[in-house]
Fold these 2 entries.
Entry 1:
Amino acid sequence: MVHYGHSNQLRQAKAMGEYLIVGVHTDAEISKHKGPPVFTQEERYKMVRAIKWVDEMVEGAPYVTTLETLDKYNCDFCVHGDDITLTVDGKDTYAEVKREGRYRECKRTQGVSTTDLVGRMLLMTKTHHSNMDNPDYQQHTDNFGKGPKGHSPWTGVSQFLQTSQKIIQFASGKEPQPGDTIIYVAGAFDLFHIGHVDFLEMVYKQAERPYVIVGLHFDQEVNRYKGKNYPIMNIHERTLSVLACRYVSEVVIGAPYAVGKDLLDHFKVDLVCHGKTEVFPDKDMSDPYAEPKKSGVFRTINSGNNLTTDDIVQRIIENRLQFEARNQKKEAKEMAVIEAMKRREHQSEGAAQAAH
């Protein structure tokens, strides 16, 4: 998947240098080393290009990063999160560049992982945001994220904790300027994906100088009109996901469902857009876009992409057994590395004591 944890890693990486090149692996490489990817390589290429800290993207990057790769793209060093990545035979994929001092590490975003998101999708309940302690959820995470022994710190399920600092780091901080066209869109933008990216790109292209504001509905509101266990991501996670997109200038956290006159006046909105997806009526059965339609500022956008959050959940459910096997295998490899690290520490401590 491509989620805000990855965006945060790219943000940190960009801050370490001036120009960020991101290599994305093919489906075949990921299947070989990790298990089936959720998004196809073409979808992932496009999604990574849409992250605002990315300057350049390399398609089909090798799974093992070598000095040759770094030199080929004229890179001083490569950056990875502080979790372990291993090849199918359990080797550190960054061993060579680490030896040569051309490796940097950035902090992993606590509380999100592909594993956790997949777990939430497989656990189709309404309560996953509020009810992490419920026995069903615990039982499910046990099946999903744990191998037979122990618990890897990288593959567990934890809750994301939003801070004002994180929002500031992701936000552009740019005010609309005279001459900008202020475009407003609203929705859940759950599990931010290529369908959203294509839509926002088309919205961005509606004006010469677009300033795109995305209104995000609160979790309860999304649950009211989407049902099931939506949203999969809570409002804080969805905020970061949308802010990381290069086509977005500003996010309204907890936007009203009906796009009323107050909102249009407050943000001086020139244009309100909505995609081809169904517009659910408000609680009183009224059209949430009645006001912008009446004012003549409403536009329906056809992005040419019909992918929905529902479709992604379906992909996960269809591949459920493969994903569960993938996570158990990944955890077992991580646990083996942790055991080996512990053994090495004990050996060096033993040698140090013997030297005394």
Note: The first strand starts at residue 21 and ends at 24.
Entry 2:
Amino acid sequence: MSLLSALLPLLAVYRAGIAAILRQLGRRRRCPPPAAFPTQNGKVAIVTGGTKGIGYQTAKHLARLGMHVIIAGNSESEGQEAARKIKEETLTGKVEFLYCDLASMKSIRQFVQQFRAKNCPLHVLVNNAGVMLVPERKTEDGFEEHFGLNYLGHFLLTNLLLDTLKQSGTHSHNARIVTVSSATHYVGKLHLNDLQSRCSYSPHGAYAQSKLALVLFTYRLQHLLTANGSHVTANVVDPGVVNTELYKHVFWVVKVAIWMTAWLFLKTPEEGASTSIYAAVSPEMEGAGGCYLYNEERTKSADIAYDEELQRRLWTESCKLVGISDESSRVP
């Protein structure tokens, strides 16, 4: 296989990422200092994938604002170390780690049981964890890993925590669900008849599909929350092109390009976390849901993401896959 033919599939999927880089040349922003947002004393947040990268920076800033932050991750050692470092850097003891493997439905349910046993509220859920461009492999439950971990894991986690979020939100201070997607959702295609990519696997296509699914999920979730009169909002964020460990599975030529240009074109993890933090605590987002945010601004997602019938069908199928009842069937 020639070098050009090997790169074509990657370039096809990452044209959205390239466009994002070009936008960032004139619009890069430093993560706002925590003082720019109101203190969050007494509030509780869960951040998945909070041991490194964007998730770590998100957890650290929320802790610095006074939140009790629970980091959910699949490495006990990394999780405990992340909690220790955040406590040291922020001078707060309100950070802890709870094990949660988003590639395991059983682990997710155990995590939720552990959290509920604390009898504490939940004001912010940040669905941040994910994998990117991994070789074809299955989760513990037999799902394609991008779809199973990036999307289904967060779908189940969010649904299991919804009651607590609803109880914690108030008319003046809604609980918030923040889900991290990607510009690659613009080129994603949702294959409802082959969500597990069994017919033809492409790591680039599978990743883009999982990120599109997260946008569709967020819009449908907000519709259901509004219909039920819940004091909870759901938004989806695009962190931009960020220099994190997620790129370890990309083609070697791209790795070299990232190594050479990261300082100029790519955001730091702290900069990448800024929109997640904004969605989680900014007064400007109070009561606002169903938004796609990039660089702390509401922007338009892919046209297909607004297809309400596709949102409904994905939600129904997702409920079947993770084994929960589809309460949305009573909502138009």
Note: The chain has a mean pLDDT of 86.
